[in-house]
Amino acid sequence: MTKVAFIGLGIMGMPMAVNLARAGFEVIGHNRSPRPAADLCALGGRLAESVPAAVAEADTVALMVPDSPDVQAILQGRDGVFNRAPQGALIVDFSSIRPDVSAALADQARQHGMTMVDAPVSGGEAGAIAATLSIMVGGTADAFTRAEPILHAVGSTVVHVGPNGSGQTVKAANQLMVAGHIELLAEALAFLEAYGVDIEAAVKVLGGGLAGSAVLNQKADQMVRRDFTPGFRIDLHHKDLGIVTSAAREAGIVTPLGAVVAQLMASARANCDGGLDHSALLRGVQRLSGQLDGERQQSIPPKED
Question: 160 phi and psi, to 5 degrees?
Fold first, then answer.
């Protein structure tokens, strides 16, 4: 039985840790702020009060934390993984961070006698709960093979995409596409609602054609209901689009639509929507249309014959 230290038990991390325990791994979880872990403990998992306590005897250290500085602090600190985990440990970073930071951390891991893969995920909270995440993995072929049992316990699509940092590059592209899809879905729904169309019927027929997508399937209903309970917060997607923008500039790649959606995400955050699900980009469309928070609701009148 492999001992897995799982650092970061948030919206994504907790169900992933639970699925690892369900798959038979011995899971020791740690979260920066205390939170309930009944499901994890019911499956034989336990909580540790600190990173050193969590990783002391771990064969594998998994991370799911918000940003590059968080990963760096957990790995590089005096009481961090590099100094406290056993020699030979495998580090699986499920976080979404900068590709260059990920590659540099993998080099440092090797210097400490450890192996690291970047394994960012896509699929949101629903995918984390159902263990159907799509996982894009960067690292050596041997490291990928070693990590596969862990990865397949939490995801259904697991693909080795190249050397360290490659997984983060693919995740950045994923976040660019998802943000664009959500923004266009928000605009389409606002457009349909303005004309009084049967939204349920419209979503059904759109989903059956070329406009269909996983974003439409997973986000349209909650957008129609105005339920923006976070599965993936605007704050985090804003961070990811910053990674895309910076990396694209460094590569000399122009992303005009990506730049626009990055600004719309930043606007949502500036308007205090950062803690909401990224489907709350709909609120930005409503805000620009003068229809938010009890403001004037105006439908386009039908044309006269």
Answer: -80, 115
pLDDT for residue 304 is more than 50: no
Cα–Cα dist 60/81, whole Å = 11
* pTM, 2 dp: 0.91
302 C-beta neighbours (distance < 10 Å), count: 8
CA-CA distances (angstroms) from residue 207 to 133, 161, 184, 213? 21, 29, 14, 7
Q: Residue 34's pLDDT band (boundaries 50, 70, 90)?
A: confident
Helix axis angle for 166-194 and 256-268, nearest 10°, is 70
Confidence class of residue 93 from pLDDT cuts 50, 70 and 90?
very high
Whole-angstrom Cα distance, residue 260 to residue 241? 11
Point out the catalytic residue in the list 171, 204, 219, 239: 171
Asked if 65 contacts 71 with a C-beta cutoff of 8 angstroms, the reply is yes
Is 171 a residue of the active site? yes
> Which residue type, as a one-letter code, is found at position 92?
V
Place of tokens 């928070």: 293
Torsion 224-229-234-236 (CA) sign: negative
With 0-12 CB in 10 A as exposed, 13-18 as middle and 19+ as buried, what is 6?
buried
Among candidate residues 80, 79, 81, 77, the one with its CA nearest the CA of residue 61: 81
**pLDDT in the model for residue 1:** 59
Provide the mean pLDDT of the chain: 94
Axis crossing angle, helix 214-225 with helix 199-207, rounded to the nearest 10: 170
Pairing assessment for the beta strands 26-30 and 3-7 based on DSSP bridges: parallel
Give the number of other Cβ atoms within 10 Å of residue 233's Cβ.
Answer: 21
